[in-house]
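ok so for the tutorial part 2 we go from a plain amino acid sequence to predicted structure tokens. step 1 is just haveing the sequence, like this:
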Amino acid sequence: MKNALRAHVLMSKSKGTLAMKLRLLLAGLAAGLMITAARADTPPSHIRGTIDSVSAQTLVVATREGPKVSIALPEKFGLASLKKIEIADIKPGSFIGTAAKPNDDGTLEALEVLVFPEAGRGTGEGHYDWDLAPGTSMTNANVDAAVQSNSGRELTLSYKGGSVKVTVPPGTPVVTPAPAERADLKPGVPVFVVALHNDDGSLKAAFVAVGKDGVAPPM
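step 2 — the prediction. this is what the tokens look like for a chain of 219 residues:
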């Protein structure tokens, strides 16, 4: 009886720890996306690349454009990894974020899709410009319909104030948030950083998505 009680207590603590990690993860992700979506005089920078070096207070990223960028790591900032899921997991009722490029006919083609856990519904909701590639947009919205076509999975998305249709071609990265720790920030690991600008022009991390288990941040 004592062993069973002890096991129940440990399991309850484990579930509580996982729930707390999920809440912190979603809070960090929400903060990063809301800061990104905000219309500010000095919008945050999106930094994509691999970690060149890292210390307790500084992250140096070798950017995809070439130069290295030094980013201060505050005591608290949003941090998450991502795990792959199947495109079939995108269903009506899902809340997703997708970066997309415009086709010549004006339709949108997804470059990546992030499927939020239910607790993250509403995160960064809207349709706005994005900088994954020239001319790209980001849409965080509810999936009203998802149908298969010859060109991929066609999604009808609705958000406050509008709706769009996006096609997700086969092979498009589809991911969902997963917990991460500061120890996951290691040289050579891919990252996506939302960084704020200090008054002196230096950068401070607000949110970091870190590559883990072979999954690189696709946004």
